[in-house]
Write a structure and sequence with these properties.
Layout (H helix, E strand, L loop, with lengths): L8 E7 L6 H9 L6 E7 L6 H7 L3 E4 L3 H11 L4 E5 L9 H12 L3 E8 L4 H17 L10 E5 H6 L11 H9 L6 E10 L2 H6 L1 H17 L28
Organism: Propionicimonas paludicola
Keywords: Cell membrane, Glycosyltransferase, Membrane, Transferase
InterPro entries: Glyco_trans_2-like, Nucleotide-diphossugar_trans
């Protein structure tokens, strides 16, 4: 790729003490067949080796904060036509960006999310993620949602809606997609897929977390967007635990 070639994708990753898992995603990005991209890590003050690992992998590091703040800061530094928001604990195939580019260009999309697959051998985890995807697929036509660990949006659309609302304490990802879908429809892509960590499920408990997410949606529907700490939320500090039903992604 020459210096005059446009960048197709800006990969934005918010981090806080992700030295254990970030290298896995960075290695996946380095292995991509499609090479027109840049990587931006928005770090919220890590005290481990996250920043050093990101820098050594060739990523640009900018100041982060809560996920919405970090993603906005990363977007401001981005030069790509599309912003791809990923979390540090996801994994992608070597054809992820190639498949994504083909889908976006072929279907003239400005807003998308991907099929999600849990990094777990647990039947319960697979069921929960399948149920979540079923809701997202149906909702793309009536009530668009997309998880923050995989949102793809054109930079022009992102700027048009003003990016993530930094005043929100939770569900800032769904809020962004809702506002953006007023101009361009969200579409859920079957390919490429994103493999997602189950570490939050393991720490908070499957039933407890599922119940909280239902409560979040009820609150948003009845009261409005979440601007106070009505729901507990912890950014980072979710080191994965090795259990019989899960595997580390590092």
């Amino acid at each position: 790729m020459t210096r005059t070639d446009p960048i197709a994708f800006s990969i934005v990753i918010p981090t806080l003490n992700e030295a254990e898992l970030l290298p896995g995603l960075l290695a996946d990005l380095e292995a991509q067949e499609f090479r027109s991209f840049e990587v931006i890590v928005a770090d919220a003050g890590s005290t481990d080796q996250t920043v050093e690992m990101a820098t050594s992998a060739g990523a640009r590091v900018v100041a982060g904060g809560m996920p919405g703040i970090g993603r906005n800061n990363g977007a401001r530094a981005a030069t790509g036509a599309f912003l791809v928001f990923l979390d540090a604990d996801v994994r992608i195939s070597r054809t992820f960006l190639a498949d994504l580019h083909e889908q976006l260009e072929g279907r003239f999309l400005d807003l998308a999310t991907c099929q999600i697959v849990p990094l777990s051998d647990s039947s319960l985890d697979k069921f929960l993620h399948s149920a979540c995807m079923a809701v997202i697929k149906v909702g793309q036509y009536v009530d668009p949602h997309a998880p923050g660990f995989c949102i793809v949006i054109s930079r022009r659309l992102f700027e048009r809606v003003g990016g993530f609302d930094e005043s929100l304490r939770l569900a800032e990802d769904h809020d962004l997609v809702r506002r953006a879908s007023q101009f361009r429809p969200l579409r859920v892509l079957d390919e490429p897929q994103v493999q997602v960590s189950v570490r939050r499920l393991e720490k908070e408990g499957r039933l407890k977390l599922a119940t909280k997410y239902v409560g979040v949606e009820l609150y948003r529907g009845l009261v409005g967007e979440i601007r106070t700490d009505v729901f507990d939320y912890e950014f980072a500090n979710f080191a994965p635990k090795l259990t019989a039903g899960s595997r580390s992604k590092g």
